[in-house]
Design brief:
There is one protein chain. This protein is an alpha/beta fold. The chain contains 5 helices and 5 strands, in the order E-H-H-E-H-E-H-E-E-H. About 35% of the residues lie in helices and about 15% in strands. Strands 2-1-3-4-5 form a 5-stranded parallel β-sheet, with helices on both faces. The structure holds 1,3,4-trihydroxy-5-OXO-cyclohexanecarboxylic acid. 1,3,4-trihydroxy-5-OXO-cyclohexanecarboxylic acid (DQA) binds next to loops.
Length: about 150
């Protein structure tokens, strides 16, 4: 009997930055009409079927996100899916937190940050991420999770 290969990662944290709690109503032409809870529920279902632990957290506060990254290290999280939202373009401290814990992560953005205002093209995270997935709507989270689970 052939054994299923184990997923690449066993404990995943999904971190959503400021204003992503408003998904569904916030600028739907850019971010879609799906609520954050619906995205989180979908990710939780996919992780459960792969028998992988997942936790999703959203905060509007930079320090809370930094604390969550520090906690993730202590909790044994081994992969992070990160949408830093507006902090993408500003946050040295969140970048430093990611570097400090050294947990591999994928940076995701629902909108195509390269096709918007020029200042959105700069990210404090892209050069230290495993990869970045942008511009495909909420599917960016699903694709990042597939990678984390070791799925093609
Ligand atoms: C975003 C893009 C950011 O530029 C913006 O500030 C956000 C959302 C995205 O998912 O497309 O809040 O990260």
């Amino acid at each position: 009997m052939s054994k299923k290969p184990l997923p690449a990662h066993r404990s995943i944290l999904v971190l959503h930055g400021p204003n992503l709690n408003l998904l569904g109503t916030r600028e739907p032409h850019l971010y879609g009409r799906e609520a954050l809870e619906d995205i989180n529920r979908r990710l939780a279902r996919a992780a459960k079927s792969a028998k992988v632990a997942i936790r999703c957290l959203q905060s509007n506060h930079e320090g809370e996100l930094v604390d969550a990254v520090h906690r993730a290290k202590k909790q044994g999280v081994d992969f992070i899916i990160l949408n830093p939202a507006g902090l993408t373009h500003t946050s040295v401290v969140l970048r430093d937190a990611m570097l400090a814990v050294g947990i591999p992560f994928i940076e995701v953005h629902l909108s195509n940050v390269h096709a918007r205002e020029p200042w959105r093209r700069h990210s404090y995270f892209s050069d230290i991420a495993v990869g970045s997935i942008v511009g495909l709507g909420s599917g960016v989270y699903d694709l990042a999770l597939r990678h984390a689970l070791g799925l093609p």
